[in-house]
Design a protein that fits this description.
- The chain is elongated.
- Strand 1 and strand 2 form a beta hairpin.
- The protein has 10 helices and 11 strands.
- Helix content is about 45%, strand content about 20%.
């Protein structure tokens, strides 16, 4: 009967398959070889299939054994996950953690922080949404997330507590085929106003009647940063993008940085990012762990940028554009 299956039998099956023999599997399990052989024989009887071919010097998986090994791995992973979740619940760890992150924030840093969290709290379900401009603040106001990462100081609320993370370089760029890319001198606001600017729209009403970094009366407004990125690379217009998102295109010369002095030195603006949360909600165990991981990533990136800038200064190159 399948109901007679035990986790012990399944774990023995997986261990012997990975170890390559009953003896090696028994050694890993700290069990007698006879007990392991007997348990797997019972498992074969209950499943009514032969899992191992024992005719050779070493047991080998049969076709049925190969197929069922995947299921056995899945069962053990589910059980381990259930144990981790139960342990987390006993320790007061959140069941789920929801994040809304500004599209300017470097995704590689967020990924590294989330990996750290998964390593220490694997039972926590994670939800990540990317939204521009007022999106993260609105999500906190609406209680749609536990933590948010905001960019800049244009969206503030006394009910929202913020902690500085790191600054993100934002570059004015255009495709190498764009007329502005052939202009080697500094570009003024008038120069930029003659060309279509690709602009990211705010999904909320928080910036109604306001524009940020818009210098051209000719605009094409889009809803996602991916769309903005693709349109700029295609040469439809120029626009501002975070340096981390365009490093490959800059290296391949698909995109050219624009020396737009109206947008910062050499067209580069440093936008400060902030970790944000509601003041009426205490941070849970997992949220605190993620907060600490984000600060570690911020500190590591700041140190790396300072080292690069020091090296650039020593070589006589202009500092300040490192990501």
């Amino acid at each position: 009967m399948l109901d007679a299956l035990t986790l012990d039998q399944i774990r023995m099956f997986v261990t012997v398959a990975e170890a390559g023999s009953f003896r090696a599997g028994a050694t890993r399990l700290l069990r007698a070889q006879s007990a392991v052989s007997h348990a797997i024989a019972n498992l074969e009887t209950q499943l009514d299939v032969r899992l191992f071919d024992r005719s050779g010097h070493r047991p080998t998986l049969t076709a049925a054994g190969e197929a069922l090994l995947e299921d056995a791995h899945a069962v053990l992973l589910k059980v381990d996950f259930m144990r981790a979740r139960a342990r987390g619940l006993g320790e007061g760890v959140e069941i789920e953690l929801s994040l809304v992150v500004d599209t300017l924030y470097p995704l590689p840093l967020m990924a590294a922080a989330l990996k750290d969290l998964r390593d220490t709290h694997p039972s926590v379900r994670l939800r990540l949404t990317l939204e521009p401009l007022g999106g993260p603040l609105q999500a906190l106001r609406d209680k749609r997330c536990d933590l948010a990462i905001m960019a800049g100081e244009d969206f503030l609320d006394p009910r929202i507590e913020t902690e500085a993370l790191q600054s993100v370089p934002i570059l004015a760029v255009a495709a190498r085929t764009h007329p502005l890319a052939r202009r080697r001198k500094s570009l003024t606001g008038i120069d930029l106003a003659d060309h279509l600017q690709i602009v990211l729209e705010d999904p909320t009403a928080l910036s109604e009647g306001r524009d940020f970094g818009v210098l051209s009366p000719q605009t094409l407004r889009v809803g996602t940063q991916d769309a903005k990125h693709a349109l700029i690379v295609a040469g439809v217009g120029w626009g501002r993008l975070p340096q981390w998102a365009v490093e490959r295109e800059l290296a391949d010369k698909q995109l050219v940085p624009l020396a737009a002095t109206a947008l910062g030195p050499q067209g580069v603006a440093q936008v400060q990012t902030y970790l944000a949360r509601r003041t009426d909600r205490a941070l849970g165990v997992a949220a605190t762990a993620l907060r600490n991981a984000l600060h570690r990533q911020a500190e590591a990136q700041t140190s790396a940028r300072q080292r690069r800038n020091s090296g650039s200064a020593a070589r006589g190159a202009p500092p300040g554009t490192g990501g």
